[in-house]
Design goal:
This protein is an alpha/beta fold and about 250 residues long. It is about 30% helix and about 25% strand. Strands 1, 2, 3, 4, 5, 6, 7, 8, 9 and 10 form a 10-stranded mixed β-sheet that branches. Strand 5, helix 5 and strand 6 form a beta-alpha-beta unit.
Length: about 250
């Protein structure tokens, strides 16, 4: 495996899910993706919360040692919509052989450069997940991605096709509620916590809708946890799903 950006052979099994305007929007953010005070500052704040959920899910799914520093040793992980690698690098440190896929070539170039500087061997690929011949993975993640794709059904099907037997999928996404419209678009984008134009509320997906898509793909969705935001706690895991949520899925 190489930490450089690579190309993969195409196949015709997947539907088109990339929206060119979305890819261009996130590609423009690539240069300061790793700046915790830059345009991706909210992702930096979100990452520890996602990793908290992910670590517990990994331990439960594979009945691992909760004290182990590398619970993904010997396993492969795929992060779809990886951006500049904010999740890929922790997955690699948890022991996984990691592949990151993103629609924006600028993002995977920034990701590969950062991984090289960190001494991490991560494979990054720019392209359409349904059209990449990259095999299957023990862990498949897509964090804050499904709300940006053109065809959610095709996207879930493509993720499922990349999941190895006995594997674990983890997804996070904003919920389509009045609260998310007010806070994530009206407030967060309004004051610059999230770059303007990042989200389109009509594209948000409810847990029930996501569950139906996963069920159609042959997966069983786990119990979702919400990701809340408060002045006192910042971002945190909660039972309140009204703003954002994160969930596991596995084959039935």
């Amino acid at each position: 495996m190489s930490d450089a950006t690579t190309s993969a052979r195409s196949n015709t099994s997947g539907g088109q899910t990339i929206r060119p305007d979305e890819a261009a929007h996130f590609g423009r953010l690539a240069k300061d993706w790793w700046d915790p005070k830059g345009s991706s500052a909210m992702l930096h704040r979100l990452n520890p919360v996602r990793l908290q959920f992910l670590r517990e899910a990994i331990d439960l799914h594979w009945a691992g040692d909760i004290e182990a520093r590398r619970p993904l040793a010997g396993k492969s992980a795929l992060d779809v919509g990886c951006g500049a690698g904010l999740l890929c690098e922790p997955l690699a440190r948890l022991g996984a052989e990691v592949t990151g896929v993103d629609a924006a070539p600028e993002n995977v170039a920034a990701a590969a450069l950062h991984a090289e500087g960190a001494g991490l061997d991560i494979r990054y690929i720019a392209g359409e997940i349904g059209s990449l011949d990259i095999g299957t993975f023990d862990l498949v993640s897509a964090m804050e991605v499904i709300e940006h794709v053109a065809d959610k059904r095709a996207f879930v099907a493509a993720l499922t096709a990349r999941l190895a037997p006995g594997g674990l999928m983890v997804l996070s996404t904003p919920n389509r509620t009045p609260q998310s419209r007010l806070l994530m678009i009206g407030a967060a984008e309004g004051i610059g916590l999230i770059p303007k134009g990042t989200h389109h509320w009509d594209d948000f997906i409810t847990p029930e809708e996501l569950g139906d898509l996963l069920d159609e793909a042959g997966l069983e969705m786990g119990y979702p946890k919400g990701i809340g935001l408060s002045p006192a706690k910042g971002l945190y895991l909660t039972d309140d799903l009204s703003l954002n949520y994160i969930v596991t899925a596995r084959a039935r």
